[in-house]
Design a protein that fits this description.
By secondary structure, the protein is an alpha/beta fold. It is 41% helix and 23% strand. The protein has helices spanning 2-17, 23-33, 44-58, 77-81, 95-104, 115-121, 142-152, 169-176, 189-197, and strands spanning 66-71, 86-91, 109-111, 127-133, 153-164, 201-209, 215-222. A seven-stranded mixed sheet has the order 3-2-1-4-5-7-6, sandwiched between helices. β2 (86-91), α5 (95-104) and β3 form a beta-alpha-beta unit. The longest helix has 16 residues, at 2-17. It is globular and about 45 Å long. The N and C termini lie far apart (41 Å).
Protein backbone atom coordinates (compact mmCIF):
# COMPACT_ATOMS: atom_id res chain seq x y z
CA UNK A 1 0.00 0.00 0.00
CA UNK A 2 2.78 2.45 0.88
CA UNK A 3 4.38 1.93 -2.54
CA UNK A 4 1.04 2.53 -4.26
CA UNK A 5 0.45 5.79 -2.34
CA UNK A 6 3.92 7.08 -3.19
CA UNK A 7 3.34 6.22 -6.85
CA UNK A 8 -0.01 8.04 -6.97
CA UNK A 9 1.25 11.25 -5.38
CA UNK A 10 4.55 11.25 -7.26
CA UNK A 11 2.50 11.18 -10.47
CA UNK A 12 0.59 14.28 -9.38
CA UNK A 13 3.84 16.10 -8.57
CA UNK A 14 5.34 15.08 -11.90
CA UNK A 15 2.36 16.52 -13.75
CA UNK A 16 2.89 19.91 -12.16
CA UNK A 17 6.68 19.80 -12.54
CA UNK A 18 6.08 20.49 -16.24
CA UNK A 19 4.90 23.88 -17.48
CA UNK A 20 1.35 24.13 -18.83
CA UNK A 21 -0.40 27.16 -20.26
CA UNK A 22 -3.42 26.88 -17.97
CA UNK A 23 -5.28 24.64 -15.55
CA UNK A 24 -7.14 22.88 -18.37
CA UNK A 25 -3.83 21.56 -19.66
CA UNK A 26 -2.98 20.17 -16.24
CA UNK A 27 -6.34 18.45 -15.75
CA UNK A 28 -6.20 16.99 -19.24
CA UNK A 29 -2.76 15.59 -18.42
CA UNK A 30 -4.02 14.16 -15.11
CA UNK A 31 -7.48 12.83 -15.95
CA UNK A 32 -6.92 11.81 -19.57
CA UNK A 33 -3.29 10.81 -20.02
CA UNK A 34 -2.16 9.57 -16.60
CA UNK A 35 -2.70 5.84 -16.10
CA UNK A 36 -3.49 6.17 -12.36
CA UNK A 37 -6.03 8.99 -12.70
CA UNK A 38 -7.33 8.59 -16.24
CA UNK A 39 -8.15 4.89 -16.36
CA UNK A 40 -11.59 3.30 -16.56
CA UNK A 41 -10.61 1.58 -13.31
CA UNK A 42 -10.45 3.48 -10.03
CA UNK A 43 -7.28 3.78 -7.98
CA UNK A 44 -6.80 3.14 -4.24
CA UNK A 45 -7.38 6.79 -3.35
CA UNK A 46 -10.69 6.85 -5.22
CA UNK A 47 -11.74 3.47 -3.82
CA UNK A 48 -11.29 4.72 -0.27
CA UNK A 49 -13.61 7.64 -0.95
CA UNK A 50 -16.11 5.47 -2.82
CA UNK A 51 -16.40 3.13 0.16
CA UNK A 52 -17.43 6.09 2.33
CA UNK A 53 -19.82 7.46 -0.28
CA UNK A 54 -21.57 4.09 -0.33
CA UNK A 55 -21.68 4.07 3.48
CA UNK A 56 -23.34 7.49 3.54
CA UNK A 57 -25.75 6.48 0.79
CA UNK A 58 -26.76 3.38 2.76
CA UNK A 59 -28.15 5.65 5.48
CA UNK A 60 -30.65 7.36 3.18
CA UNK A 61 -34.23 6.13 3.42
CA UNK A 62 -35.14 6.74 -0.21
CA UNK A 63 -32.92 4.50 -2.32
CA UNK A 64 -35.22 3.82 -5.27
CA UNK A 65 -34.02 4.78 -8.75
CA UNK A 66 -32.71 8.31 -8.38
CA UNK A 67 -31.64 11.23 -10.51
CA UNK A 68 -27.98 11.82 -9.66
CA UNK A 69 -25.49 14.55 -10.52
CA UNK A 70 -21.72 14.40 -10.03
CA UNK A 71 -20.23 17.92 -9.92
CA UNK A 72 -16.58 18.43 -10.79
CA UNK A 73 -16.71 14.87 -12.00
CA UNK A 74 -13.37 14.61 -13.78
CA UNK A 75 -13.50 11.56 -16.03
CA UNK A 76 -16.70 10.37 -14.28
CA UNK A 77 -15.49 7.47 -12.12
CA UNK A 78 -17.69 8.40 -9.14
CA UNK A 79 -20.81 9.00 -11.19
CA UNK A 80 -20.25 5.70 -12.95
CA UNK A 81 -20.05 3.96 -9.57
CA UNK A 82 -23.57 5.25 -8.79
CA UNK A 83 -25.18 4.19 -12.08
CA UNK A 84 -26.73 1.17 -10.36
CA UNK A 85 -28.80 3.57 -8.24
CA UNK A 86 -30.29 5.66 -11.05
CA UNK A 87 -29.57 7.96 -13.99
CA UNK A 88 -26.36 9.96 -13.70
CA UNK A 89 -25.31 13.33 -15.07
CA UNK A 90 -21.67 14.44 -14.77
CA UNK A 91 -20.64 18.10 -14.82
CA UNK A 92 -16.99 18.85 -15.60
CA UNK A 93 -15.59 22.14 -16.96
CA UNK A 94 -12.58 20.75 -18.86
CA UNK A 95 -13.74 19.71 -22.33
CA UNK A 96 -10.89 17.28 -23.02
CA UNK A 97 -11.67 15.45 -19.76
CA UNK A 98 -15.36 15.29 -20.68
CA UNK A 99 -14.55 13.82 -24.08
CA UNK A 100 -12.40 11.19 -22.39
CA UNK A 101 -15.11 10.41 -19.82
CA UNK A 102 -17.72 9.94 -22.53
CA UNK A 103 -15.54 7.24 -24.08
CA UNK A 104 -14.88 5.50 -20.76
CA UNK A 105 -18.45 5.65 -19.45
CA UNK A 106 -20.95 5.94 -22.35
CA UNK A 107 -23.98 5.40 -20.10
CA UNK A 108 -23.41 8.75 -18.37
CA UNK A 109 -24.57 12.09 -19.73
CA UNK A 110 -21.76 14.65 -19.50
CA UNK A 111 -21.96 18.44 -19.51
CA UNK A 112 -18.80 20.48 -20.08
CA UNK A 113 -19.46 23.55 -17.94
CA UNK A 114 -19.24 25.02 -14.45
CA UNK A 115 -22.14 24.59 -11.98
CA UNK A 116 -23.37 28.16 -12.38
CA UNK A 117 -23.65 27.74 -16.16
CA UNK A 118 -25.47 24.44 -15.75
CA UNK A 119 -27.96 26.04 -13.36
CA UNK A 120 -28.53 28.98 -15.70
CA UNK A 121 -29.09 26.73 -18.73
CA UNK A 122 -31.15 24.09 -16.86
CA UNK A 123 -33.12 26.03 -14.20
CA UNK A 124 -35.82 23.36 -13.85
CA UNK A 125 -33.54 20.34 -13.72
CA UNK A 126 -33.25 19.15 -10.11
CA UNK A 127 -31.64 16.01 -8.74
CA UNK A 128 -32.35 13.61 -5.88
CA UNK A 129 -28.66 13.17 -5.08
CA UNK A 130 -25.61 15.33 -5.65
CA UNK A 131 -22.05 13.96 -5.46
CA UNK A 132 -18.96 16.15 -5.22
CA UNK A 133 -15.53 14.67 -4.49
CA UNK A 134 -12.29 16.63 -4.09
CA UNK A 135 -13.55 19.82 -5.68
CA UNK A 136 -14.20 22.28 -2.84
CA UNK A 137 -10.53 22.70 -1.98
CA UNK A 138 -9.88 23.95 -5.53
CA UNK A 139 -12.65 26.58 -5.43
CA UNK A 140 -11.88 30.15 -4.35
CA UNK A 141 -15.47 31.41 -3.88
CA UNK A 142 -16.83 28.44 -1.98
CA UNK A 143 -20.05 30.13 -0.91
CA UNK A 144 -20.98 30.93 -4.52
CA UNK A 145 -20.13 27.37 -5.52
CA UNK A 146 -22.30 25.78 -2.83
CA UNK A 147 -25.19 28.16 -3.56
CA UNK A 148 -25.25 26.74 -7.09
CA UNK A 149 -25.11 23.19 -5.77
CA UNK A 150 -28.17 23.99 -3.67
CA UNK A 151 -30.06 25.04 -6.79
CA UNK A 152 -29.44 21.65 -8.42
CA UNK A 153 -31.03 19.56 -5.68
CA UNK A 154 -34.68 18.83 -5.07
CA UNK A 155 -36.16 19.79 -1.76
CA UNK A 156 -35.45 16.93 0.67
CA UNK A 157 -32.73 15.76 -1.72
CA UNK A 158 -29.25 14.72 -0.58
CA UNK A 159 -25.62 15.66 -1.12
CA UNK A 160 -22.45 13.70 -0.36
CA UNK A 161 -19.26 15.73 -0.31
CA UNK A 162 -15.58 14.89 0.18
CA UNK A 163 -12.67 17.29 0.62
CA UNK A 164 -9.34 17.23 2.50
CA UNK A 165 -9.22 18.21 6.17
CA UNK A 166 -7.43 21.47 6.83
CA UNK A 167 -6.64 20.24 10.35
CA UNK A 168 -4.17 17.81 8.77
CA UNK A 169 -2.68 20.13 6.16
CA UNK A 170 0.64 20.55 7.99
CA UNK A 171 1.06 16.84 8.65
CA UNK A 172 0.10 15.96 5.08
CA UNK A 173 2.52 18.53 3.67
CA UNK A 174 5.33 17.19 5.87
CA UNK A 175 4.70 13.64 4.65
CA UNK A 176 3.79 14.22 1.00
CA UNK A 177 5.03 17.70 0.13
CA UNK A 178 3.01 20.74 -0.90
CA UNK A 179 -0.29 19.90 -2.65
CA UNK A 180 0.45 20.67 -6.30
CA UNK A 181 -2.84 21.80 -7.82
CA UNK A 182 -3.26 25.49 -8.75
CA UNK A 183 -5.80 26.33 -6.01
CA UNK A 184 -5.44 24.54 -2.66
CA UNK A 185 -7.72 26.16 -0.07
CA UNK A 186 -8.65 23.45 2.39
CA UNK A 187 -11.50 23.61 4.92
CA UNK A 188 -11.63 22.37 8.48
CA UNK A 189 -14.39 19.91 9.29
CA UNK A 190 -16.46 22.57 11.05
CA UNK A 191 -15.92 25.08 8.23
CA UNK A 192 -17.15 22.56 5.67
CA UNK A 193 -20.28 21.66 7.64
CA UNK A 194 -21.05 25.31 8.37
CA UNK A 195 -20.65 26.19 4.69
CA UNK A 196 -23.40 23.77 3.68
CA UNK A 197 -25.65 24.48 6.65
CA UNK A 198 -25.56 28.20 5.80
CA UNK A 199 -26.73 27.34 2.27
CA UNK A 200 -29.88 25.39 3.01
CA UNK A 201 -28.64 21.97 4.10
CA UNK A 202 -28.91 19.99 7.30
CA UNK A 203 -25.96 17.81 8.25
CA UNK A 204 -26.59 14.06 8.46
CA UNK A 205 -23.35 12.15 8.95
CA UNK A 206 -19.56 12.45 8.69
CA UNK A 207 -16.68 10.03 8.19
CA UNK A 208 -13.06 10.02 7.05
CA UNK A 209 -11.05 8.14 4.45
CA UNK A 210 -7.65 7.30 3.02
CA UNK A 211 -4.13 7.76 4.36
CA UNK A 212 -4.04 9.71 7.66
CA UNK A 213 -7.84 9.98 7.40
CA UNK A 214 -7.09 12.99 5.22
CA UNK A 215 -10.51 13.11 3.56
CA UNK A 216 -13.64 14.34 5.30
CA UNK A 217 -16.85 12.95 3.85
CA UNK A 218 -20.16 14.56 4.79
CA UNK A 219 -23.75 13.87 3.80
CA UNK A 220 -26.41 16.58 3.87
CA UNK A 221 -30.12 16.92 3.26
CA UNK A 222 -31.62 19.95 1.57
CA UNK A 223 -34.24 21.55 3.79
Amino acid sequence: MKHILINIYQRIKNIFSSKYINEDDYYEKMFVKDKEWGSIDINVDEQSRLNEFYLHFSKFKNKSKLSIVDVGAGRGWLGNSFLKFGKVVCIEPVKAVVNHGMKLYPDIKFFSCKPESFVKDNPNLKFDLLLCSEVLEHIIDKDFFVKNLTKMIKRQGFAIISTPRKELYGQWMKKNGLPPQPVEEWLTTSECINLFESNGFSHIFSSNAFDMDIYQIHSFKKV
